[in-house]
Amino acid sequence: MFKSRKAWILSAIACLFVVFMSCQSPRPVAQSPPVSPSPEATPAASPPDAPSPTTAPLPVTAEPPPLVNGDRLMADLNALNFERYTTAELKKTRAFMAQTLSASGWTVTEQPFETGVNLVAERPGIAPNAGVLLVGAHYDSVRGSPGSDDNATGVVVALEVARLLGDRKTIRPLRIVLFDQEEAGLVGSYAYAQRPENLKNLDGVVILEMLGYSCSTPGCQQVPGEFKVKLPSDKGDFLAIAGDTEHLPLLNAFSEHHQPNLPALVPVSIPFKGLLTPVILRSDHTPFWFEGIGAVMLTDTAHLRNPHYHRRTDTPDTVDAAFLTGNAQTAVNAITALLDRPQSFLTTETDKS
With bands split at pLDDT 50, 70 and 90, how would you rate the model's confidence at 20? Predict the structure, then answer.
């Protein structure tokens, strides 16, 4: 995860600019193409981002979400147990990720930008006009750290999502994006979000950011002063999920489809695109918030819990395999439900209650 005071300040300024502009005139959100009303349509029009009506129920699977393979997660984590900072190391990482995705039936493309390369794979949904759900994680690490938690854990969960949901019939298309240069200041995700074709028909984003470290010593979990969040305990045994208040269905899906045997969840809704909480703007959901796209970030809270953060000791043996597997299942459960949700991800009065 990116750590720079200067970047926090710049992010806060950017947030202020976004909020100011939104007060001047509404900014359109990238949504599905509008659908012309039928002659039988009632005077009450559907929201502009609502999916097109269907004449028959869509043939999505009624099966429960697939089960995560914990051994496979750890095998991938060990395969990525090397520093991912130099050009050669990043190229080696992309080759591993592309081979894994291709073996699961995905067509993988590279999106180069000035200082790096994002890896992209997508498969269609069954509803012609349904908006895309993007699942993303950054694959680079800081110099001198193998980055097992930051962020190989996010990468291996994204790869597991691709394996489990690649051939599942869902209403929405699923896109997997593995971002480069997050540690340099979210450079890869900003480059991705600044290409208009990438935002076309994009309805929601799930960012996987450090998912494998837990601590059981009382007091091992810290909380930033700007957050007024009630935690299950002062131990680091939960998964935090941050989402923007304008797209609460994305955030709510994780609690609604959570299972009691999985690690506890602490969902946090973030107002004003993080202006009041700039510490939350240090991962790849941020560029999408600034573009008006709903996004959530899943995290084990990074340096607020993990003493190996950005150090040489961030290795697979410090990752809690059971915790990582449980968090991966939490992600799969919610992502599966979101892919089969035809309604908009925009917040309604019901979502606020």
Answer: very low
